[in-house]
Write a structure and sequence with these properties.
The complex is a heterodimer of chains A (107) and B (124).
Chain A (H helix, E strand, L loop, with lengths): L3 E4 L2 E4 L5 E7 L7 E6 L6 E5 L3 E2 L7 E6 L2 E6 L9 E6 L6 E2 L3 E5 L1
Parallel strand pairs in A: 2-11
Antiparallel strand pairs in A: 1-3, 3-8, 4-5, 4-9, 5-6, 7-8, 9-10, 9-11
Chain B lengths: L2 E5 L2 E3 L5 E8 L8 E6 L5 E7 L8 E3 L7 E6 L4 E6 L8 E8 L1 H4 L4 E4 L3 E5 L2
Parallel strand pairs in B: 2-11
Antiparallel strand pairs in B: 1-3, 3-8, 4-5, 4-9, 5-6, 7-8, 9-10, 9-11
Classes of the chains: A mainly beta (107), B mainly beta (124).
């Protein structure tokens, strides 16, 4: 099973600041890495697929990068609605696995 | 509107069974693989089961934690995917989501549409 480790667990930032979230895989997942956003009380929302492709309707302030074992989700300038939990997921091999999540909270 | 709606959750005793349903609308349900996920209260996301579309023989995949106890199936004539959950235990408690996969249609490995979830509580 591929283990995904997200860091930091919590990120305390102010609106307008840049957020950088990390996801590290225990073995290569090529570029089959997905990012989701989950706001309180809501279902996960697809942000990024194939490590760097924005999903339909996702603002350009969200970007993804990386390949192999190291991946990054960047939010260039935080909006109030961006304070949420972010999960990475690998789609390389079964079983599908998620990282433990990074909570982006208001400082 | 493209959407998925889960139903069938509730309170059940350990050892008993539940069947969840995931009903799709606004798209050609049969063209898409479907997966179930769960989220224990206050915890992260966990993948549970996956079923391919008919063109790939509706073959399933299961997480180790549910293999042999849970069974995923689909009825494309009704646009429904099911999750039959047997031998429930307290670790199965959580909010269960279904989601569609873009792989068959767009060759993209991503779950783009999610339901709002149905709560399953296993307790004596």
């Amino acid at each position: 099973e591929i283990v995904l480790t997200q860091s930091p667990a919590t990120l305390s930032l102010s609106p307008g600041e840049r957020a950088t979230l990390s996801c590290r895989a225990s073995q290569s997942v090529s570029n089959y890495l997905v990012w989701f956003q989950q706001r309180p009380g809501q279902a996960p929302r697809l942000l990024i697929y194939d490590a760097s492709n924005r999903a339909t309707g996702i603002p350009t302030r969200f970007s993804g990068s990386g390949s192999g074992t190291d991946f990054t989700l960047t939010i260039s300038s935080l909006e109030p609605e961006d304070f949420a939990v972010y999960y990475c997921q690998q789609r390389s091999t079964w079983p599908l696995t998620f990282g433990g999540g990074t909570k982006v909270e208001i400082k | 509107e493209v959407q998925l709606v889960e139903s069938g959750g509730g309170l059940e005793q350990p050892g008993r069974s539940l069947r969840l349903s995931c009903t799709g609308s606004g798209f050609s349900f049969g063209d898409y693989p479907v997966s179930w996920f769960r989220q224990a209260p206050g915890k992260g996301l966990e993948w549970v089961a996956y079923i391919r579309s008919k063109v790939y023989d509706e073959t399933p995949e299961y997480a180790a934690s549910v293999k042999g106890r849970f069974s995923i199936s689909r009825d494309d004539s009704k646009s429904i995917a099911y999750l039959q959950m047997n031998s429930l235990n307290t670790d199965d408690t959580g909010l269960y989501y279904c989601a569609r996969d873009l792989f068959t249609i767009q060759r993209v490995r991503a779950f783009d549409i999610w339901g709002q979830g149905t709560m399953v509580t296993v307790s004596s």
